[in-house]
Amino acid sequence: MSPRQFTALKSGLFLLCLVPLANLVYGLIADTLGANPIEVLTRGLGDWTLRFLLITLAVTPLRRLSGLGWLLRLRRLLGLYTFFYALLHFASYVWLDQFFDWAEIGKDIVKRPFITVGFASLLLLLPLAATSTNAMMKRLGGRRWQVLHRAVYAIGIFAVLHFWWMVKKDITEPATYAVVLALLLGMRLYWALRSGPGRHGVGVS
Amino acid sequence: MLIQRLTDILSSEITAPEIYRGRREFMRAAGTLALAGGLGLQVADAAAGVKLAGTRPGPYGTSEELTPYKDVTTYNNFYEFGTDKADPAVNAGSLNPRPWTVRVDGLVNRPGQYDIDALLKLASLEDRIYRMRCVEGWSMVVPWVGYPLNELIRRVEPLGSAKYVEFTTLNDRARMPGLRSPVLDWPYTEGLRLDEARHPLTLLAVGLYGETLPNQNGAPVRIVVPWKYGFKSAKSIVRIRFVEHRPISSWERAAPREYGFYSNVNPEVDHPRWSQSRERRIGEFRKRKTLMFNGYGEQVARMYTNLDMRRYY
Fold this sequence. Notes:
The complex is a heterodimer. By secondary structure, chain A is an all-alpha fold. Chain A has helices spanning 3-16, 19-30, 37-66, 75-97, 102-111, 113-130, 134-140, 142-149, 151-166, 172-194. In chain A, helix 5 (102-111) crosses helix 6 (113-130). In chain A, 20% of the residues are buried. In chain B, strands 1, 4, 5, 8, 9, 10, 12 and 13 form an eight-stranded mixed beta sheet that branches. Chain B has a five-stranded mixed beta sheet with strand order 3-2-11-6-7. Chain B is globular and about 45 Å long. In chain B, strand 12 (278-281) and strand 13 (288-289) form a beta hairpin. Chain B has two domains: 12-43, no CATH class; 55-304, Alpha-Beta Complex (Sulfite Oxidase, Chain A, domain 2), CATH 3.90.420.10. Classes of the chains: A mainly alpha, B alpha+beta.
């Protein structure tokens, strides 16, 4: 792929990632989100956080399976969009759902396991977003940066638990995400084991 | 009990839908209706009921703003038609609420099968505007049509040994697509203590907004217990059984730590996974405080004076 083609692809992807948000905002304005628009918005933003997270986690296996090296150069964009949607999801909870009732929010985080793990995954995303720049990568050094960014596996597990524990009874959706996550993490584990302890970590991120 | 066909509702009595629904929606539907009317066809719509004539205002009303008809009929928990709250309005067209019979049996002197039209005439219909609080933390204000369940109960003469009442929802896969999913242990059952069932607030509801119940709201007949979380109010019931021992209801069986038999609305006792201290009234932006017994404490609190509400949630 030529640099020009890649720039066009990346720009297209950048815009595409904004479509779910635009869709929700349009729904709010046009009043097509149903009787409880705040719930639809908060959950929609949560759904998309999880989807972007899984898409980001799919980049490395896809590159490995397809041999398309340029895929890796889209990973940061996707990872930052995960963080972006996670922040919006949290903001929607803090503002629209709880209306800045910090005491109630604090209680939720401590007392409700599904909120505890959701909040934990947001906190874990912070250092990853902060160290996503080339300068930070250089300052940390590739090896340490890679170790830090393995936190994304924990984030993935927490995020799926966050959804699973929230659901009342019908676990079809969280279970679907859990299967995809297990597949994405399982492939990494398989490759890591096969490459042996000596080469641990190479190509696994 | 007699089974008879519905003959007493004239097409001229069908309420003009613009009274309840948005003007714009009405204009869109008007073209279709005009065409169908001209051809002499009947228009079937899962969300459109038939006007219930001769209702009178009932007690315990509230002056709170009614939740719009559209929200009441498109935001429903009725897992027999799918687990998303938008599902019932889409899928409940297949319910076919007529003909319909309700079996009343168990520990009673006069068990029987009640045809829905006989039930409709059993007692005079009242308009009852109740708050409805869902265990999930949202609420509505719904103008129901019905009469106290006790009107039926006293006619069947419960025996002294009858301590509880169990309600069973229709369990027909052909008419309820959601039953194919084992998300709950079907059929849906719910229960009340006999004194709760006989309480004047407990309604046998056959309509809302002056019309027969839309399918997604539990057509043709359901229970409404306004001081308990919404799931206690069984929809589309086919059986009312009087029993000696406390029945286990569907949600209690599914998650006993989360959904107790009593499930009285109680801001002090949290659901294990979320707080019950506040609720979002559908249509409002800020959450409001949840009231003890959903604001019906004056009427019902005395039934629970000897009950540890933390233990028996």
